[in-house]
Amino acid sequence: MTYTDGESTFAFDDDQRFTTPFRKLSDQQKNISIGYDQGRVDARLSLSSRGDYLDWLADEEGDIDTISLGNSRFVDNHSQLDFSLKYDINDNLSVKLEGINLTDEPEYYFWGYKDRLSQYDEYGTTYSLGFRYNY
User: Fold this and answer.
1) What is the DSSP letter of 40?
2) Please, what is the average pLDDT of the chain?
3) Alpha helices in 8-99 (DSSP H)
4) pTM, entire model
5) Which residues contact 117 (CB under 8 A, 6 or more apart)?
6) Which residue in 134, 135, 132, 105 sits closest to 121, CA to CA?
7) Is there a contact between 53 and 24 (Cβ–Cβ < 8 Å)?
8) Distance CA 123, CA 104 (A)
9) What pLDDT, in 10s, does the model give residues 17-67?
10) Rounded distance, CA 126 to CA 99, Å?
11) Nearest-5° Cα angle at 122, 7 to 20
12) Which side of the chain, N or C, has fewer Cβ within a 10 Å radius?
């Protein structure tokens, strides 16, 4: 687990004050993996998670007078489950199978409040199969 402690406080035109971790930086990153590595088999199951974060602030348009919570974009928290399996066929050849985002978790972006959707991305699950030959 990684925990960062840095923040910015913004005073918006509508008399709201908002404190957030630094732009593009989530307060918490968590990763946990369980694995098996014995003989020819190497398998890993990993869960990674991060908290929400400030993605974009209206001052990036150059007009600092229009900053408000409502026109600041955030990325919602996100978790995903990944899997990898490697098998050594012999001393020279191995095969590897990976599955990324097994639970098909989407990613949400919102304007100031979670009920004001900015963007919704579905990446799906990605599978890959590879071979490695050492000579």
Assistant:
1) T
2) 87
3) none
4) 0.75
5) 108, 109, 110, 111
6) 105
7) yes
8) 7
9) 777 767 788 878 889 999 999 999 999 999 999 988 888 876 666 555 667
10) 6
11) 10
12) C
Residue range(s) defining the domain that contains residue 58: 2-133
Mean pLDDT of 7-25: 72
Query: Do 29 and 53 touch, CB atoms closer than 8 A?
Result: no
Token reading at 9: 């406080």
> Are 38 and 85 within 8 A, CB to CB?
no
Phi first, then psi: give them for residue 10, nearest 5 degrees: -120, 135
Which SS3 state, helix, strand or coil, does residue 31 take? strand
- The beta-strand segments (E) located in the chain are 2-3, 7-11, 17-21, 28-38, 41-50, 53-56, 73-75, 78-88, 93-100, 107-111, 117-121, 126-133
Q: Provide the pLDDT for residue 118.
A: 93
Q: Residues with Cβ < 8 Å from 115, sequence gap 6 or more?
A: none
Instruction: Report the C-alpha gap between 92 and 129 in whole angstroms.
Output: 17
Domain count, the chain: 1
